[in-house]
Amino acid sequence: MSITHKDAPTKTVDVGGTSFAYRQLGTGNGVPVIFLNHLTGVLDNWDPRIVDGIAARHRVVTFDNRGVGASQGRTPNSVAAMARDAIAFIRAMGFEQVDLLGFSLGGMVAQVIVEEDPKLVRRLILAGTGPAGGRGIDKVTSLTIRDTIKGALTFKDPKQYLFFTRTASGQAAARQFLERLKERTDNRDKAISLTAFRSQLKAIHAWGLQDPYDLSDIQHPVLVVNGDNDRMVPSSNSVDMARRLPDAQLALYRDAGHGGIFQYHEEFVKKALEFLAP
């Protein structure tokens, strides 16, 4: 029986003296797809339909960056440092070239990885994310805290507010997504610590205030995806990135927010597999 997100074992690898937690599944000996996670995201926050869908044709690796979930160390407070850690993890896994799927904060990390080590990356998927200095990114901290408090007061997961639109279809998709996240019951990851959460917020805030990168330097094929109504990282950032990247495709999902790839997971997996095909 093939391994799925639900039962993939959690392993560790030594990255310069620090233990990083990861899970690996999928088929083939081709270029692996490295998933780079969102703010507060740990191994169990990836949508099983996306992990399993891409793993049907590719080797998929999800991991906790330094100080997050089950990985040791102190979480960096800059996107650049997170990118350096991700590169070190990829090298420690023995990979010479990878594809990247970066969601939200992970998409910011992915942009730095491809700038710092372009030969390491073959193709790049940027989901629900934005460029350095992008519009509204410096507001992520206040928005996240506000919706986290709202979630606590209404006994709901804040992702229901942060990742999805308030429409009936958006909230139905939110409930379905949150149920999928519960499918794995054994050997679940540790939740992110408050200290790590604060460091990630600081990194995103600084990213939003940075001078813009020259995205024309990124010559790789890039798939840019988002919902058409992203409150966390405004969807205009996706349009801006797709315009500024030399070899980019853009997909915006209707009536969808930050978690558009989760709401439209079937369409996204199909498009991602077409994009990542050798």
Automatic annotation (TrEMBL):
An annotated Gene Ontology molecular function: catalytic activity
Residue intervals of the AB hydrolase-1 domain: 32-262
Coiled coil location: none
UniProt-recorded name of the protein: Pimeloyl-ACP methyl ester carboxylesterase
Organism: Nonomuraea polychroma
